[in-house]
Amino acid sequence: MLNTDSTVVRGQISFQAQDRFDLLADGEELPATLSGNFRRTLKQQHTQLLVGDWVNGTLQAGNVRITAMQPRTSLLERSTSSRFRQSGNQAIAANLTTVVIVTSANHDFNLERLRRYHAIATVSRAKPAFLITKTDLITATDLAKLVGQLTATFPGTPVFTLGADQEPAAQLAALLRPDACLALIGSSGVGKSTLVGKLTGEDLYTKTIRQDDAHGRHATTNRRLFVLPSGTRLIDTPGMRAVGVAEASAGFAAQFSPIEELAASCQFRNCRHVSEPGCAVKAAVQAGTLPEATYQAYLKYQAKEAR
Ligand SMILES: Nc1nc2c(ncn2[C@@H]2O[C@H](COP(=O)(O)OP(=O)(O)OP(=O)(O)O)[C@@H](O)[C@H]2O)c(=O)[nH]1
Ligand SMILES: [Zn+2]
């Protein structure tokens, strides 16, 4: 007999890998897929479901068929520049309440970079906040200077601090409200993974599958939403780590503009200039009019953007 029983569910996307999702509904994590209609709707709107999205669906035999998405209250994207928006893979997470910009107290501290992160957070419509990590590495006087610099440059944006000897849940208490949905952004090595591990109480990054990226560093491969003991949701994604990449590559744009011009003549509009027939970029490399080094740097950049 056909089972027509279905329960309506509402929940938040906690995991996404291609067309498979996990949905967090009433404290339970359920596997989910898109209904055919909804998949077409998303395609027409040139959008995709993201971790953090609130959706409606029907539960059947332990699997949710997602039928609708609720309007987003915020959308975190890798760059504020429309130039990079068009390259796709731009959206990172939806419905964040606060974007926590993480910087370490030592040599990583760079006001110009923090300005870019602050812009990304502001454009997302989530509230920005700063977290200075590794405060154990500097003196209290120097820390006070950094905090002063941030509050003077970004009035109204709260500044939190955290040292190796301190309890993250206590230091970040004001952010860890039950209705909050947070994401951490910041350069590699500032201590984001360490922090997520401490907040979730899980040693995530030894359990997660890791893969080498172009620079021999490691990056987690899946985006995921965690629910902390406080009820706060914390989103950690490879995209968060890549935010710095898009921003750093804004400076690359000039270098790659000859490639973008050539790309207009490629046979395929979505040509990646790797092995496609009729690729004007590869042709220019072969003809010697585009330096091989520029082409190689571009491929590396593309690979990072696609992660
Ligand atoms: N002194 C000090 N070191 C820390 C602190 N937090 C993290 N670290 C160290 O900083 C290094 C980088 O920390 P991660 O947590 O991997 O940094 P990340 O921001 O997640 O870096 P990616 O994973 O590359 O994005 C590690 O060696 C940590 O042990 C801290 O509060 N104080
Ligand atoms: Zn091409």
UniProtKB/TrEMBL annotation:
<dbReference type="Pfam" id="PF03193">
    <property type="entry name" value="RsgA_GTPase"/>
</dbReference>
<comment type="similarity">
    <text>Belongs to the TRAFAC class YlqF/YawG GTPase family. RsgA subfamily.</text>
</comment>
<feature type="binding site">
    <location>
        <position position="266"/>
    </location>
    <ligand>
        <name>Zn(2+)</name>
    </ligand>
</feature>
<comment type="function">
    <text>One of several proteins that assist in the late maturation steps of the functional core of the 30S ribosomal subunit. Helps release RbfA from mature subunits. May play a role in the assembly of ribosomal proteins into the subunit. Circularly permuted GTPase that catalyzes slow GTP hydrolysis, GTPase activity is stimulated by the 30S ribosomal subunit.</text>
</comment>
<keyword id="KW-0862">Zinc</keyword>
<keyword id="KW-0378">Hydrolase</keyword>
<feature type="domain" description="EngC GTPase">
    <location>
        <begin position="94"/>
        <end position="241"/>
    </location>
</feature>
<dbReference type="InterPro" id="IPR004881">
    <property type="entry name" value="Ribosome_biogen_GTPase_RsgA"/>
</dbReference>
<protein>
    <recommendedName>
        <fullName>Small ribosomal subunit biogenesis GTPase RsgA</fullName>
        <ecNumber>3.6.1.-</ecNumber>
    </recommendedName>
</protein>
<comment type="subunit">
    <text>Monomer. Associates with 30S ribosomal subunit, binds 16S rRNA.</text>
</comment>
<keyword id="KW-0963">Cytoplasm</keyword>
<feature type="binding site">
    <location>
        <position position="279"/>
    </location>
    <ligand>
        <name>Zn(2+)</name>
    </ligand>
</feature>
<keyword id="KW-0342">GTP-binding</keyword>
<keyword id="KW-0690">Ribosome biogenesis</keyword>
<keyword id="KW-0699">rRNA-binding</keyword>
<feature type="binding site">
    <location>
        <begin position="133"/>
        <end position="136"/>
    </location>
    <ligand>
        <name>GTP</name>
    </ligand>
</feature>
<feature type="binding site">
    <location>
        <begin position="186"/>
        <end position="194"/>
    </location>
    <ligand>
        <name>GTP</name>
    </ligand>
</feature>
<keyword id="KW-0694">RNA-binding</keyword>
<keyword id="KW-0547">Nucleotide-binding</keyword>
<keyword id="KW-0479">Metal-binding</keyword>
<dbReference type="InterPro" id="IPR010914">
    <property type="entry name" value="RsgA_GTPase_dom"/>
</dbReference>
<feature type="binding site">
    <location>
        <position position="271"/>
    </location>
    <ligand>
        <name>Zn(2+)</name>
    </ligand>
</feature>
<feature type="binding site">
    <location>
        <position position="273"/>
    </location>
    <ligand>
        <name>Zn(2+)</name>
    </ligand>
</feature>
<dbReference type="InterPro" id="IPR027417">
    <property type="entry name" value="P-loop_NTPase"/>
</dbReference>
